[in-house]
Design brief:
2 copies of one chain form a homodimer.
Chain A lengths: L7 E2 L23 H8 L2 E7 L4 E3 L7 E7 L2 E6 L5 E7 L4 E2 L12 E4 L3 E7 L3 H7 L1 H27 L2 H16 L16 H8 L3 H13 L3 E4 L2 E4 L2 H7 L8
Helix pairs in contact in A: 2-3, 4-6, 4-7, 5-6
Chain A binds a DNA duplex (30 and 30 nucleotides) through α6.
Chain lengths: 248, 248
Amino acid sequence: MKHLPKLSVRAQPHTPCITCPIRPRTLFATLPTRELSKAVQYRLNQYAIGAKEHLYREGDRIDEFYTIFEGWMILYKTLRDGRRLILRFALPGDLIGLHTDFQASSRYSALALTPSVLCAFGKERFEAMVAEHPQIGMQAIQLSMQETALYQERLVALGRKSAEERIAHLLAELFYRLYPHTEPLHCAAPFPITQEEVADAVGLTLVHVNRTLRRLRELGLIECANRRILVQDAAALAQLGQLDPEYA
Amino acid sequence: MKHLPKLSVRAQPHTPCITCPIRPRTLFATLPTRELSKAVQYRLNQYAIGAKEHLYREGDRIDEFYTIFEGWMILYKTLRDGRRLILRFALPGDLIGLHTDFQASSRYSALALTPSVLCAFGKERFEAMVAEHPQIGMQAIQLSMQETALYQERLVALGRKSAEERIAHLLAELFYRLYPHTEPLHCAAPFPITQEEVADAVGLTLVHVNRTLRRLRELGLIECANRRILVQDAAALAQLGQLDPEYA
DNA sequence: CGTAAAGTTGAATTCTTTCAAACACGGTGG
DNA sequence: CCACCGTGTTTGAAAGAATTCAACTTTACG
């Protein structure tokens, strides 16, 4: 754990993260169940991390990668003068920390927004995993390309969409990633994110995000109850934010 | 070729694209030379495509992916009202068209800026390739993650950098991707891109890009000779654009 | 040599930020 | 149980950045 300072290890939960019930965006989704037991061997550990704690910071060299079992995290980069941009919100089931060069240090920081539970895998064994189970390699490629698609969408948003569109886009994206259902949902949980985090994700000012959220609230698309954003009408948000309707 | 309308096939050049001399960013970079001959079998074809021709458009279903052998291309997305954002410039050696879902249609368009030569591979054989040569799978993962890193950088640029910084960032990025050397270079070729393309890549207006380029020109960082942008001082551009200095 | 595409410039407008100050809520400790 | 504190939210006014509109110039190319 030397490379992961502020990290506290706790007893392993009963449910192994491989079977993360939320959404099977893991490396092992395509493995036949018979082989799962073998795959689990590659797991290194499970961690619990508190809200506002860093899993790692820009520049850290990490020799593991992770699947989020529970909790919300953000991956962000900072410029010299402190400007911050949130690259993506990492939700339960997401894979994080698999970088370009397995030796190289991370180019962004990973911070828990809520208390989170992570499942860690050793990087040095990754290549062996792929050699033994080519499907894992294919799955990693798939996941990586899904991530790429997400970044492409966000790039269009930050580059060519208005404040209103960007925020609607972000909220709809998060909603559909959390609830990839088709039927209208009534029981969505409020997002554990602050307006400042929205601002840093869409490339706007906190103040301007606040004003824009007010407009969305007046339109009945969202609700802001006790410091939480609650999506009321995800379809309308997606429409307003020109979100490509293929996130399902 | 049915899915690739405006595409003209021409006689195969003598040099196979596998040995693309520019930069070995191909899938086969890590294969031992003995095995290369086998890998070449996966190649489907080679195409030549003229300037301003599309390789494919948003929504097209393509069953190949490509390595650029020669030429500059752009990958872009368009919003309903015509706003365009260039996701990335694809340079010789780059891999394009490997999408999330191998069946799904492309979520962006690919357009040649200059006459280009491409090497095509069949997607349906990709999985077999990976199974046979796990190194190819690993290489695909590496390439995909490099692409991700590129998108992350651009996201920070569009989200949190000023006009001047964004443009400096873009030009420096292109420069270092084209000339990944460390020593100062004196013989860099001008970029075959218009100011409108710069604008659509950094998320600004053509007019504002023009004004900003003038400032960079006055600073001596670039030169704009006969409709081409020529980088004069890549290091200064990278510094000004806060480009992470790890593109080598 | 004429035309179309690309580049350039100015002025007015719009969008977003900055600065500054309140306000609200949740948790803490007395 | 209440005062207090800190974090997060809200609002106004002024300044700044980028866009829009519109015209004009330059260049490449047939």
